[in-house]
Amino acid sequence: MPSTRFYSLLASVALAVSVRAGLPDKIYGTNIGSWLVLEPWMLPQEWVDMGGQQCSDCSTCIASEFAFAQAYPDTVDAKFKTHWTTWFTQSDVDNLVGAGINTVRIPLGYWIVEPLVDRATEFYPKGGMVELQRGLQQLTNAGISVILDHHALPGVASPGQMFAGRCTNDVQFYTSANYHRALVWTAVITALSHVDPNFAAVAALEAINEPIMDANQTPGMGDFQKHFVQTVRAVELSLGVPVPGTTPAGIITSATNVSEALTTASTKTSLFNADVLAALVDAVPMFTYVVEQLGLNIVLETNGLRDAMAARSPLVTTFMDINWQQNSPANPADAAIGPQGYDNHLYYSFGGVADATEDAYLTSVCNLDRIEKDAALNNSPLWFGEWGLSTQFDATDDFLKKW
Ligand SMILES: *[C@@H]1O[C@H](CO)[C@@H](O)[C@H](O)[C@H]1NC(C)=O
């Protein structure tokens, strides 16, 4: 891969900027889990009521979105529509505001960009994008910032996990064909985040949730990290969204609409690397599909869209932190162009973090050194994008208040 030929006009600014752009200085957050990526273990009864199943090895029964869609091709879309509209509602948004939450992370599957799905071999519900737009409108109106998280990736990125969309040991994400599909998804979601006013709350985009922890099993991750950031920035520069420290590409000045700007960008071999250009080429028709699905204006002279692009903040590109992986992982800090943040996940209930006592938990959490260890490797700012309150023991109310 010609990885030296990326972004010649941007090469000098990598690592220079560490602002948080559209994210609050201090995040009080939660996930909107099991909404657009349904993990049956979180809602066992509702899942069974929908027609799902439970089994000890989730690859052997209807225990993922993929298995459900394969089993019920005629009713899957309607069943999931009911789930989407009832699982996350305006009253949830009101409760988040009441609790002082200022940021949410929304896990998404690649299948929300429907043309990315190979329907001969891949099975997922349709219609999630419209619900995402509805939820983002509610969150935008409530003033809550959003981290969109590519949680379930094409080809499956983690074995034996419901969160991967399909529960299987046949992990195919870490291949050039699926890295490409993930970049296409990235380009479409980046463009939408800026162009659709309902997406105004979107401040950050996470490249991949929880890759396999052994870096020997994730070949190509370092290149993918770089291409992910370059794709986000290529779309932003095409749309006229200013990215600190970079020179505007000037593409938007001659374009009449966003599709034309992206099409023009996809030909700029002097600006963008070949993998990024290939992603843009395939993203244009998929972006057009979603624009029609959501009924968006993309004409730059209509409703002040051109000025709105110039007023947007760049997305905070986001990765799991380098210490998520072992065995000499690539450092996502090496991919940064413009604002970037890092995500670590902390669950005591699965064991391995601290002894199963109240004292050990509190001693551990008060002395946690993950932020410092990451900062030493330029993985800063760090946030805990998943943080499980559950414990390995019956917690007292007194303990939970300290926890
Ligand atoms: C965008 O511009 C292209 C090129 O001028 C044109 O073919 C296309 O119809 C336009 N799309 C919209 C939605 O205006």
UniProtKB/TrEMBL annotation:
Q: MF terms per GO, please? A: beta-glucosidase activity
Biological process terms from the Gene Ontology for this record are: glucan catabolic process
- Domain Glycoside hydrolase family: from-to ranges: 79-392
The record's annotation in Gene3D superfamilies points to: Glycosidases
Is the keyword Hydrolase in the record? yes
Annotated signal peptide: 1-21
Quote the Pfam families the UniProt record gives: Cellulase
Q: Which keywords label this protein?
A: Glycosidase, Hydrolase, Signal
* Gene Ontology cellular component annotations, sorted alphabetically: cell surface; extracellular region
Q: Which PANTHER family match?
A: GLUCAN ENDO-1,6-BETA-GLUCOSIDASE B, GLYCOSIDE HYDROLASE FAMILY 5 DOMAIN-CONTAINING PROTEIN
Query: Its family?
Result: Belongs to the glycosyl hydrolase 5 (cellulase A) family.
- Indicate what this protein is called per its UniProt record: Glycoside hydrolase family 5 domain-containing protein
